[in-house]
Design a protein that fits this description.
The chain is an alpha/beta fold. The chain folds into 2 domains: 189 residues, Quinone Oxidoreductase, Chain A, domain 1 (Alpha-Beta Complex); 129 residues, 3-Layer(aba) Sandwich (Rossmann fold). The protein has 11 helices and 17 strands. Strands 3, 4, 5, 8, 9, 16 and 17 form a 7-stranded mixed β-sheet that branches. A 6-stranded parallel β-sheet has the order 12-11-10-13-14-15, with helices on both faces. α11 links the parallel β16 and β17. The radius of gyration is 20 Å and the shape is globular. Belongs to the zinc-containing alcohol dehydrogenase family. InterPro entries: ADH-like_C, ADH-like_N, ADH_Zn_CS, ER, GroES-like_sf, NAD(P)-bd_dom_sf, Zn_alcohol_dh. Its cofactor is Zn(2+).
Length: 349
């Protein structure tokens, strides 16, 4: 089969490799769509994965074409997406159902071969059945949607809240859509890119703020009668935005940090004062899994897509063939261009 293998940082090659054979507890999936996650970019272009060589790609969907002898509940021809985490089931966190915090996990695309390939054998318990009306490329975005929903669960964010979302990548845009779907009345989107902010507006944001051109905190307070919003989700990982998220929260507000930061974060005294005097809660959100595995996040993301409450077409910006993977990552590294969710089609569109 054809697959994209990574041999070193910035070294991606389209090769012919052996088609996988499913183990007794696995299903062979024909990969019809696989997306680029924000974490793939530094993994491929800067830091490298945990093992080499490896086939990257962990946001994907496909069709069941083979079944391990111990697999039940699945049939040839079923359509599915796959949760990429393979938890150990032995550590304290796993035993408590906190699978996102597993201490000895494996992961398709970073610790195990992933889905930049025509086929992949996956654990059957990691699979989520997709409604027939959900296109495969939508199925490949259930992962970022589940990450957004996990942040809402961590922050106990409901329709009673007002919401600010910093960072209009794929997860941020799904947060906007999900917030609108559950009935939040005031949603503010913050980014430094006008194209991404227009996408946020299309996804349901009531207000958009370009923090490169204006003070985001001042503008958010203007939009909320001086109060700030009761929930703030920070998706960018930018230290500037992480501080602004605290300053944009209302009293008793919850700030959820999801964006991966590779920089130190120092709170200015105003932010510390705001946390103390406003009795704010600063909450971490990691990945997208809960009990029963893979979690409510995945089932709800797939269900909302089937109902039309989440629309990945508003987020997908590029649809390309598998052979274009190496060039796309080269361009991301050397010739920055506007994109949001990039989808590759190993068997054609």
């Amino acid at each position: 089969m054809k697959a994209v293998q990574m041999f070193a940082v910035k070294d991606l090659r389209v090769n012919e490799v052996e088609k996988p054979c499913p183990a007794p507890d696995e299903v062979l999936l024909k990969i019809y769509a696989v997306g680029v996650c924000g974490s793939d970019i530094p993994r491929i272009n800067k830091k490298g994965p945990h093992v080499l060589p490896i086939i990257p790609g962990h946001e994907f969907a496909g069709q069941v074409v083979g079944l391990g002898e111990a697999v039940t509940g699945w049939s040839i021809g079923d359509k599915a997406t796959v949760a990429p985490l393979i938890p150990c089931k032995r550590c304290v966190c796993c035993k408590g159902g906190l699978y996102s915090l597993c201490e000895d996990y494996k992961y398709y695309g970073s610790r195990n071969d992933g889905a930049f390939a025509e086929y992949l054998a996956v654990k059957s318990e990691n699979m989520i059945k997709l409604d027939e009306k959900i296109p495969y490329d939508w199925g490949a975005t259930v992962d970022p949607a589940a990450n957004a929903i996990h942040a809402f669960i961590r922050g106990n964010i409901t329709e009673k809240d007002s919401l600010t979302v910093f960072g209009m990548g794929g997860i941020g845009l799904f947060a906007i859509q999900y917030g609108k779907a559950i009935g939040i009345k005031t949603i503010i989107a913050v980014d430094i890119n006008d194209q991404k902010l227009e996408a946020a507006k299309d996804c349901g944001a009531d207000y958009i703020v370009n923090s490169r051109r204006e003070d985001a905190v001042v503008r958010i307070r203007e939009l909320t009668a001086g109060e700030g919003t009761s929930a703030v989700v920070e998706m960018s990982g930018s230290p500037i935005a992480q501080v602004q998220a605290v300053l944009a929260a209302s009293k008793m507000g919850r700030i959820v940090y999801l964006g991966i930061s590779n920089s130190e974060l120092t709170y200015p005294k105003e932010a510390v004062d705001r946390i103390l005097r406003g009795q704010l809660s600063v909450i971490g959100s990691w990945n997208s899994f809960s009990s029963p595995f893979p979690g409510r996040e995945w089932l709800e993301a797939a269900s909302f897509m089937a109902q039309g409450k989440l629309n990945p077409d508003k987020i997908i910006t590029h649809r390309l063939g598998l052979e274009e993977v190496p060039e796309v990552f080269r361009k991301i590294d050397q010739e920055p261009f506007y994109f949001n969710k990039i989808i590759f089609y190993p068997h054609g569109k």
